[in-house]
Description:
By secondary structure, the protein is α+β, with helices and mostly antiparallel strands. It has helices at 26-35, 41-44, 59-71, 74-84, 92-96; strands at residues 6-11, 18-23, 49-55.
Amino acid sequence: MEKQPAVYLLASARNGTLYVGVTGDLLKRAWQHRTHAVDGFSSKYQVSQLVWFELHGTMESAILREKQIKKWNRAWKIGLIEAGNPAWRDLWPEICD
Length: 97
């Protein structure tokens, strides 16, 4: 996967703790979460499964979308995940190809 702005949701498990993030390099950032390379929320709460992501043309649009999703209630975030990933599969293998 090429470097490209993206918004993503991580989960600790199905219906578990959620994390919303934005990055310019989804592959690298998802790896950092998976390996707990960076101390912080995702490491503390074992949030490492990539369950949703959305690619953007610019970092500005990705940041705006991240801010929008962060304001959502939990049910809306779960709905976003389940609309595209009803089984809550870890999408890591898809971005590694």
